[in-house]
Amino acid sequence: MHQPSDLQPAYLLHRRPYANSSLLVECFSATQGRFPAIVKGVMGSPRRRGGLGQLQPFLPMLIHCTGRGEVKHLTRYEALAPAVALAGRALYCGFYLNELLMRLLQRNDPHETLFAHYAETLGRLSGEADLQQVLRLFEVSLLQELGYGLVLDREVQHGQPLQPQRRYQYLFEHGPVAASGDEPS
């Protein structure tokens, strides 16, 4: 019998059929990071297909995995809350977030802060009008978490705080510098 402490919060980033009746899923949790798992028999019998609806992206879940290899076995899963309702452009943005995590995160590398920011970003996508701003904030957070943070608070030449009335140019691998012809008065 599983104890509640065996379950960990997670999101499903991607799923695809595996073998005859199973799924290969890519999970994202705060404590394990991104990792693959197999859900056996979920596509087979009509009795097991009921759980298929819980194996969807954007659904906060509690999961339990077993196994020692690189690919775990997802043995228990349940919805933690209703799925985040994304439609239209927001749905595409949600899939974009998942794709970023799939391609940029190393497997089994935990990112607790990023996990929390992902959950928050999904919520903002469901109700935010400015989807571009929501995506850029997540991208900056992701880069920061991966060690590629951008300098966005000070000018790199002199270390002075950025001033809203001035114009800056962002130099790759350096940061913001005052744009030519935009000297302080």
Q: Which features does this protein show?
A:
185 residues; alpha+beta; five-stranded mixed barrel; two-stranded antiparallel sheet
What would you say this structure looks like, in words?
The structure is a single chain. The chain is α+β, with helices and mostly antiparallel strands and 185 residues long. It contains four helices and seven strands; from the N terminus they run E-E-E-H-E-E-H-H-H-E-E. It has a five-stranded mixed β-barrel with strand order 1-2-3-5-4. It has a two-stranded antiparallel ribbon with strand order 6-7. A hairpin with a 3-residue loop joins strand 1 and strand 2. The N and C termini lie far apart (71 Å). The mean pLDDT is 87.
How many DSSP-defined strands?
7
Distance linking N and C termini: 71 Å
Amount of helix: 25-40%
Strand order of the largest sheet: 1-2-3-5-4
Q: Overall 3D geometry?
A: elongated
The residue-averaged pLDDT reads: 87
Summarize the structure.
The chain is of the alpha+beta class and 185 residues long. It has four helices and seven strands, in the order βββαββαααββ.
Q: How are the SSEs ordered, and which strands pair?
A:
Layout: E1 8-18, E2 22-29, E3 33-39, H1 46-49, E4 61-66, E5 72-79, H2 89-104, H3 112-127, H4 131-145, E6 168-171, E7 175-178
Parallel strand pairs: 3-5
Antiparallel strand pairs: 1-2, 1-4, 2-3, 4-5, 6-7
Helix pairs in contact: 2-3, 3-4
